[in-house]
Design brief:
transferase activity, five-stranded mixed β-sheet, globular, alpha/beta, seven-stranded mixed β-sheet, amino-acid biosynthesis, 39% helix, 14 strands
Length: 418
Amino acid sequence: MTRFNTQLVHGLPVNDNNTGAVNPPIYNSSTYAFESVETMPRWDYSRSGNPTREFLERQIAQLEHGTRGFAFASGLAAIHAVLSIFKPGDRIVVGKNIYGGTYSLFNEYFAERGITFEPVDTADYEALDAAVSGRARVTFDGRELEATTPAKAVYFEVLTNPLIQVNNVNRISAVAHRHGAIAIVDNTFVTPYLQQPLDLGADVVIHSATKYLAGHSEVTAGLVVVLDDEIGRKIYFAQNRFGGVLQPAECNDVRRGIQTLALRMDRQQANAQAIAEYLLAHPLVKTVHYPGVQRDHDKVLAENGLRGFGGVLSFEVVPGVDPGVVLNNLHIFRLAVSLGAVESLAEFPARMTHFELPKEERLKVGITDELIRLAVGIEDATDLIEDLGQALDKAYEVYVRDHAEAESLSQLASGVFA
């Protein structure tokens, strides 16, 4: 049996041709011929199956230690397919800190179709148990809830977006299973290179393959992996009937990106660690959100079954410093949403990735108006740090100027009205 880095490069053969091609072909065919009326071909229509897509689906299932994989046109299409296995009246417990697009899909689409979502602090296992069981409880934001039916699922991110809080897959999955629920894990920030959640008790793993797996900001894709055949059957039904499948050329883009996943992520993690340490010591930075700068980071890795913390971090500037000035003066970091690509990106969650959250909800989960998220690429770490340094210098200049003007106005006003 081959090891992980070899699996990244070679995947599993689909046995679809005898040309000797080193790379799987891209089959741009919407339909496939039957040998006869009596026979059923392996592939008949590309929405239902395609050799290029099957290679990718088999590979991600192999990498995540699952039984079956599915490729979708986006991460949200993948989440939509997974959530479609639930029925009106079902209740799903959700980690309180999730991607804004996921929040919107849950609360503005599925909630209107009869599925109930309850946010919970997934690091508070007593509160999580109460929420999954459905017994009377007080939520993390102080609301009193009456007893109700047990949840059907717990949905959470391994590393939360954008505060990079670590969720323990093993413990959360155990709580879910104790009450008959399944554990659905968004593994986008971590990838199977740093953790395989199915090995830790999760039932379904989701990826926005747009991010680390593809890795080059050139394709939009989503992947799902399952352990259970019945769950897999339901997700395939959704994939085939909704039709949000990943097209062959894009499947090949993701496959090619996966080949260099380990190499890219090693550099991105090293860069993220260096940047986090730099920001931690900067006088204009109030807080750095990256587990790698915690004193007990090795313990956090071991306790959570992680092999690293990935290449995304966030930080808050001190009150009075405008994060917009920092972001608008970056030159190597590009001001853009998304993450996991070879180039470094910076964004303002309050107005960009998490704008769907009402401000009150956003502040409840700690996404402040001073928060900046960095998706660190593979550039030279020194260049990235210098870029952040000069942008913070510009923000300080604006801070000093604005406060000097305010002081002058204050003195003028005191003189006029004395």
